[in-house]
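Researcher: Please translate sequence to structure tokens.
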Amino acid sequence: MNIVFDARVHLNYYSGISRYIICLLEAYARLYPTDRICVLLNPTIEKTNSIYNVLGRFPQISFTQVNAGHMGPKNYTKMGKIIKQLNPDVYHYPHLDAPIYTGNVPVVATVHDSNSDKNIKKFDDKFGLKTVYFKYALRSTLKKADHVIFVSDSIKSSILNQYNIPEDEDRFTRIHNGFEPDFNKINSEDEQRFIHTKGIQKPYLLFVGQIREHKNIFRVIEAFNQFRAGNPNYHLVIVGHNYLNLNLSTDAIHHFDRVNNDELKMLYANCKAFVFPSLFEGFGFPILEAFSFGKPVITSNYGATKEVSMGEAILVDPFSVNSIRNGMVTAIQSDNNDEQRKRVAASYSWETYAHKLRTIYCKVIKS
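Model: Translation complete:
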């Protein structure tokens, strides 16, 4: 089987969609070594990028740079011609705005979220143009792609309802993302050195996520300040790029704009609990990251965060500061659920995803 996997949405920083692309293709290449995969890349990707480091060791994977942005008109006009020229058995686009004018080449798309929720601001969109684009693009993908994969039941249901599209098992499938089984492996000596050199004081609660409105950072901080009034020895560590340009650091709050993967693991390993009451998620990788270390997780009581946590998280109303604060209080109380949380994280498998994905590839090729 010849596959074109379009990874132009992957950039030089590591994001959730980058994790999806790299981890899924790594698992797929191990399981199906006779399938050839051409990975399309943005020409700005550096040769030291993790996508080359991880996938470059598989002889059946090749890389092709494509000078066409993954958003906008060229994604439809230029990409259709390129895909036809490559002439694969199947074309996979891992985002909501799939190029759909591919001739006889079947299109598989992965939808992680809608990117256009009318009530929750996910990105800077002063004139509303991005929202209009994403709505048009997603509607087009849902109608014209040969198969659409959703990463959670929650996002699948909400999007199909939003666009008034009926369920169709032949075209719409939910496959939960996988998770790396060795994520919780760290070097204990490096761990203690990192915590000391960064001046992080224990005990602390941990928040990981881009500093955007939909990540609910304002209520997290307000809830923590109320929580700390009764727990003055606690600190809050925030990890994520500060898109809102907030003044986050105080005597009790420590902000890191970016940390590498090993440093992130060390922060999880040493936290008392993980705080993630996001207003909107398509999946929620950080929940599994915290679970892999057995940590209590405070997260939202609806949507994908509730679904992914499988009943093992402390569920709170993300619109209520008092509810989030109460969740923090509950989280620091000792419990014996750490092994169950680890089992939840371990139950998410990229190998399982790869097996299901190949079944979909075969299906759309035959049809």
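Researcher: Any highlights?
Model: The chain has two domains: 2-178+349-366, 188-346.
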